[in-house]
Write a structure and sequence with these properties.
alpha+beta, Peroxisomal Thiolase, Chain A, domain 1, 8-stranded mixed beta sheet, globular
Length: 275
Amino acid sequence: MNVNVAGLAVWGRGLTSYDDLLRVMQTGGLPDGAEFIAPKPEAIPSRERRRAGLMINLAVTLAHQACEHAGVDKSLVPSVFASGMGDTDITDYMCRKLAQPDKMLSPTKFHNSVHNAPSGYWTISANNRAPSTFVGGYDYSVGAGLIEAASQALAANQPVLLVAYDIVNRPPFSEICPAGESFGAAVVLAPIDWPAAGAGLNLRMDLVLESVAAASDTQPSPGLKQVAAGNPSAVSLALLEQLAAVQEGQDDRAALKLRAAPQLELHLGICPAAG
C-alpha cells in the first residue's frame, strides 16, 4: 500500500510537537532535565475537560496537531485510534476498587474506561462526525493502526488520521505491562496523489507485509531511546525519525521494520508530486 504522509505530531518527554523532534534530531538528544509536560487541550469543551485524564488529553492534543500540520478539515477526517494498553490509570483504579469491600466506582472514571473514550472526546472537540475506529494489540498496535488507517485512506480516497498513545504505568501493573514513559504520536495518511492543502509533509510511505518476521525492529536513535522506555506506542518513534530525516534531505529513501503480525516493513521517500 502506497500512501502520502501529510502531517505528523508527537508528544513525550522533551517533545510537545513535531518541530521539537526536529530540534532534538539536530542536537543529537534531549536537553538536560527534559520532562514530560502533561497536555491541556483547550479544544475540549470545559465540561468535558474536567472529566478528561492524561490519556484523553494526550490523544486529543496529538489529533489536533497532526490535522493542523496536514491542513485537513478536522470536522471531516475519519480517524483511527491505537493504544497498546488503554488507560492504565483507570484500569488500575477500577481493579483496586473492585478488590475492596466497597465496590463503588466513579461514574466519570467508568465512563472513560472504554478504549474508544479518547476518540469520543476528539470528535466532540473537533465537531467531527466521521467514522472513528479503535485498534488495540499491545506492542503490535502501531503497526495494526498504520495498516488500518492506510487501508481506509485508499479505500475512501481521502485523508485518515491515526493517533497512537500510551501512558506510564505504576506497580503492580507495570510488572506485567511495563511502560516507563508516557508517549504518543499521530499521523495523517492520504492517497498518494492527495493535494496538500496546508503545511503538509507530502512524504511517501509504502507499507509491505512480510510473511516472516526475520529482521529485528528498527529502533529509535540513542538520543531518543529513553523516551520509548517500554511504551508500546513509542514503536512509532523510529518511523517519525526516519520521516523527519527524509523531509530534511538526509536520506532520499529509508526503510524500517515495525512490529506487526506478520512483520511490517515501511519504505519512505518523497511523493512524486513534491519531487
